[in-house]
Amino acid sequence: MRRPQLDKAIEALGTGDILVLAEWDRVTRSMLDGIKIIERVAARGATFKALDRQWLDLTTPIGRGILAFLSSLAEDERARILARANGGRAAAKKRGVKFGPKPKLAAHQAREAARMVREDGKSLREVAHHYHVGHSTIVRALGRAEV
């Protein structure tokens, strides 16, 4: 979800500025979202204070330590998400799942399109018009028909 006023406030920050927040929970949607906000503010050379969370004062060493801790949690979570996603993709490939969009032409149509181009001398655009597809689809079909 976009928050244009928050984006505007962060973009207005300069080096050394402090963004004061009344309530941290009103700004962030999740821990990862909070870390992203903290990183965006830090990237501008600024920091912030949440009035309802004194411990979240990034102008102090303890606050910066909490940021480092939260960042390491986010990094660990990201690594676990990637490992699960990669494992799921590997298992799907092992089961024979094909990734990417389905071909617009069936195998027999690709063979027929290749024959129309190679033997009948029809242009790519004529064959594409016949099958109601773009000419680049016919080019890909020609490549598949060779295999």
Helices and strands in order, then pairings?
Blueprint: H1 4-11, E1 18-21, H2 24-27, H3 31-43, E2 47-50, H4 61-94, H5 107-118, H6 124-131, H7 135-146
Parallel strand pairs: 1-2
Helix content: 55-70%
| Beginning-to-end CA distance, first to last residue | 45 Å
Give me the CATH architecture of the largest domain, please.
3-Layer(aba) Sandwich
Order of helices and strands: HEHHEHHHH
Task: Let me know the number of strands.
Answer: 2
Overview of this structure, please?
The protein is mainly α. The protein folds into two domains: 4-94, Resolvase, N-terminal catalytic domain (Rossmann fold, 3-Layer(aba) Sandwich), CATH 3.40.50.1390; 107-146. The chain is built from seven helices and two strands; from the N terminus they run H-E-H-H-E-H-H-H-H. It has helices spanning 4-11, 24-27, 31-43, 61-94, 107-118, 124-131, 135-146; strands spanning 18-21, 47-50. Strands 1-2 form a two-stranded parallel ribbon. Helix 3 (31-43) crosses helix 4 (61-94). The two termini are 45 Å apart. The model has no long low-confidence stretch (mean pLDDT 85).
In short:
With 147 residues, the protein is mainly alpha-helical. Helix content is 62%, strand content 5%. The chain is elongated, with a radius of gyration of 27 Å.
Provide keyphrases for this structure:
single chain, 147 residues, mainly alpha, Rossmann fold, two-stranded parallel sheet
